[in-house]
Design brief:
20 strands; single chain; globular; disordered C terminus; 529 residues; eight-stranded mixed sheet; 35% helix
Length: 529
């Protein structure tokens, strides 16, 4: 007989890791099965030239989300990781023009004033205030609450719900809203880039997504050892409380018995029975039958035409010359609308924007841990992650070698316009394409953020924690509340709360004596997970 305290988690991404840690801390027996060889999912690292390089998300925000996770598991984030706040968030470049954004909002406002004039500085002040209002409006009733519909969200907001809902500007695109704050097209392009944090276009996503600007403004943290260290810390936290991790074991099927999830069958044929299953894979894999026909109906709203962006990602060890890089740097396309138009049409942009994470550099006034020359030249090789957005067609229209080579040339051309030359030896470079991502994350086409946030209803179409199959739950950046590392953690908290509440309800309906007199948690305590 399967213990009601036994759960299988498919995938060791952030959603799976946080789910495992929280469930194990509540005394639930947890087995995590992961097809890859290490924890992290998209928060992975790649070895290039013998050195480990972060190959996934590079920005750590909403620290309080993880502080709460570690506290609920009987520890602290600081006990596992060394973090320090970033003073400079990002350095932006349009050819020879440069603009930094800082942790100090007054410093950012002054920089924008010097860059584009007093009127634009005032526009930034108003933009910040609106982004903060939108975030605070949605934080508790939407981001940290189970998935709902517009009517349900309005009800959660209370008597001012409808008025608040209209003020978050769901029916207006981010691009149009930014035009009301900024006249300078460079600033509209800069703040429109926050749409890509959700794998979306500023010309198609709702203005609501400006809340991402507030998330960043609230604090960016640097993790010693890189972002992958966060995955390792969560794994250690879960193991300390009794969770088991098995790597290199793909799941062939989710078992369903009498209408409920009943465990998994591995590719090897091994069966792992369980009272519940948390799926940290993209929900599109469920809908496509990647985990068996019996769970195809578990989710909806994951059609291929709604996919978010993919990317080409170069992880390399090389040298930089001609530009004073900080940790996070963005080099903008000269043709923003054409760039997103090409991506929407399923093509690479001819003139792409480029993100460069110089992972050995700080995000403070010193700019480089070991110092660099005034012209930005570094004497020793350093680690880079370079990203260019790409269409999510890795499964249907993989890029040809010629297209990949042309994108590499276009990437370097964008950097050279700002004076930056990167010397990236071929033997020290690993390139990940949409086709590679499609293999790593099946049924996604390489989409990295789940469904795109296009249109006012997109956020309500994301799969929630509960599925149509009792005992099967979803967690991760492709589910509610959205894409990104902290959102994936929030989705895991919601999945765990749903699982514990459902188990408590079952225990009341069908009392089961557990060994040692252990009883299932009540609905009240489950809701606090």
């Amino acid at each position: 007989m399967v213990s009601q305290h036994n759960t299988v988690i498919i995938g060791a991404g952030i959603g799976g890791l946080v789910s495992a840690a929280l469930l194990a801390a509540r005394g639930i027996g947890v087995t995590v099965v992961e097809a890859g060889v290490a924890p992290g999912g998209k928060l992975r690292e790649i070895v290039a030239d013998g050195v480990a390089i972060d190959a996934g998300p590079t920005v750590f925000t909403l620290r309080d989300v993880f502080d709460e996770v570690f506290e609920r598991c009987g520890s602290t984030l600081d006990a596992h990781l060394s973090l320090r706040p970033a003073a400079i968030f990002t350095r932006h470049a349009w050819g020879a023009d440069r603009l930094d954004l800082f942790a100090d909002p007054a410093e950012s406002e002054a920089a924008i004033g010097a860059f584009a004039g007093a009127r634009e500085a005032a526009g930034y002040r108003a933009f910040r205030a609106e982004a903060k209002h939108i975030f605070e409006t949605l934080d508790r009733p939407f981001l940290r609450a189970p998935a709902t519909n517009p009517l349900g969200l309005t009800w959660r907001m209370g008597w001012r719900g409808f008025a608040d809902l209209t003020r978050i500007r769901p029916y207006e695109t981010l691009s149009r809203a930014l035009a009301g704050h900024f006249q300078d097209p460079r600033l509209r392009q800069l703040f429109g880039r926050y749409a890509t944090y959700a794998g979306s276009s500023p010309y198609a996503c709702p203005a609501t997504l400006m809340l991402i600007a507030h998330v960043e403004a609230a604090g960016v943290w640097l993790i010693d050892g890189g972002m992958h260290a966060l995955a390792r810390a969560l794994e250690a936290l879960a193991i300390r409380n009794g969770a088991t991790f098995r790597y290199g074991v793909p799941v062939r099927e989710i078992m369903v018995d009498r209408g409920r999830a009943a465990g998994v069958i591995l590719a090897s044929g091994e069966r792992i029975p369980a009272a519940a299953v948390v799926c940290n894979a993209d929900p599109a894999a469920l809908a496509a039958g990647a985990f068996g026909d019996s769970v195809r109906r578990a989710v909806s709203g994951v059609a291929p035409e709604r996919r978010s962006l993919s990317a080409l990602v170069w992880c390399a060890r090389g040298t930089a010359d001609g530009f004073p890089l900080v940790r996070h740097n963005v080099f903008f396309s000269g043709q923003s609308q054409a760039e997103f138009g090409a991506l929407a049409a399923g093509r690479l942009a001819d003139d792409p924007s480029v993100y460069v994470c110089a992972q050995d550099r700080g995000a403070d006034r010193s700019e480089h841990a070991s110092g660099d020359a005034p012209d930005g030249r570094t004497p020793n090789p350093e680690r880079f992650q370079i990203i260019v957005n790409a269409p999510p067609t890795g499964d249907t229209s993989p890029l040809t070698q010629a297209e990949t080579d042309q994108c590499t040339q276009s990437m370097h051309a964008t950097l050279r316009r700002a004076g930056l030359t990167l010397d990236l030896p071929a033997q020290a470079t690993v390139l990940t394409t949409p086709a590679t991502f499609a293999t790593l994350f099946p049924q996604t086409g390489g989409a990295l953020y789940g469904p795109a946030s296009h249109g006012w209803a997109a956020s309500f179409r994301r799969p929630g924690s509960r599925t149509r199959i009792p005992g099967l739950y979803c967690a991760g950046g492709s589910t509610h509340p959205g894409a990104g590392v902290p959102m994936a953690a929030l989705s895991a908290r919601l999945a765990v709360a749903s699982l514990l509440t459902d188990h408590a309800s079952m225990a009341r309906s069908h009392p089961v004596a557990m060994p040692g007199g252990t009883s299932m948690p009540s609905a009240r305590t489950a809701a606090s997970a």
